[in-house]
Amino acid sequence: MSEKIYVGVDVGGTTVKLGICNSDGTLLQTYEGPTEVSKGPDAILHNIAQYVKLIVEESSYEWSQVAGVGIGIAGFLDIPNGIIKNSPNLNLNNIDLKGFLEKELNTIIKVNNDANVAALGEAWAGAGRGIANCVMYTLGTGVGGGIIIDGKIVEGFQSVAGELGHMAIVPDLEAIQCGCGKMGCLETVSSATGIIRMAKEAVARGDRTSLIEVDHIMAKDVLDAAKAGDEVATRIVNRAAYYLGRSMSMMSVILNPEYYIIGGGVAKAGDFLFDQINEVFEKYTQEASKEGVKIVPAVLGNNAGVVGAAGLILRG
């Protein structure tokens, strides 16, 4: 019998990334094409279908070997039915993505949230390989998340489980409004956007910090300043790490994952950030819930979504 292959598609606002994986999650081949959001929903859907056909045609595999195609996409989804309710970045509303691609490609199609598939990618073939229970945080413009329990994505009643960035964890007196409209979300302090905001506020207050010399402050500037001993930057990073550690402490008594996997641009701060998160986690987590638990960096980088999308066919 021919080896089965699994195609993963990571749909972004600018590009559509694709990959072919084997049953072990090894990425065998990649392809990338423009999303072309400006051309409207029909063009986006047509592009996805064409890119899937192209990656298989350009590979050494036959279409008969394709076991299915998994799609990761940002937005609010009806996951069981593969319907995009609303994807603001792609301007897609009430789109039956699963139904369209099943007709176009005549194979099994599974659709899931982009953060969920990134978590599945890391769990299947990345930092969490061989780990059945893990939670992934993605620290970028926002705080994304995905929960894997017994090797499966936790989706929840309305397909919105794993929205870790919107845990209301910051106390009222310190809280600001999040982009979601609620107050005190983790995302307001532990994302790149939150770190930049706190740095700009410190500069505007006239706090003594080297960041005053930076024209356009980025999260990396704040992290680098903290590593260099800048007190204001250190305070900001400490706050970001504190609430991440506290959120993991809460997750541990609810889900008891073995690994917390952290990815995204902010995670590139390395041990400087991870050591602080670990310290908070150790301090606040109940003994049985933290025994043997590890907080580790993601390893797949930009390929996590593609690999995880392919993994939907086997493990989604």
Per DSSP, the total helix count is: 10
Terminal-residue CA separation: 24 Å
- Give the CATH topology of the largest domain: Nucleotidyltransferase, domain 5
Can you list the strand order of the major beta sheet?
Answer: 3-2-1-4-8
The major β-sheet equals: 5 strands, mixed
Number of strands: 13
C-alpha-based Rg, rounded = 20 Å
Secondary-structure element string: EEEHEEEEHEHEEEHHHHEHHEH
CATH architecture of the largest domain: 2-Layer Sandwich
Global geometry: globular
Uncertain spans: none
The pLDDT mean sits at 95
- The structural class is alpha/beta
In short:
This protein has about 325 residues and is α/β, with parallel strands linked by helices. About 40% of the residues lie in helices and about 25% in strands.
Could you list some keywords that capture this structure?
about 325 residues; Nucleotidyltransferase, domain 5; 5-stranded mixed β-sheet; about 25% strand; globular
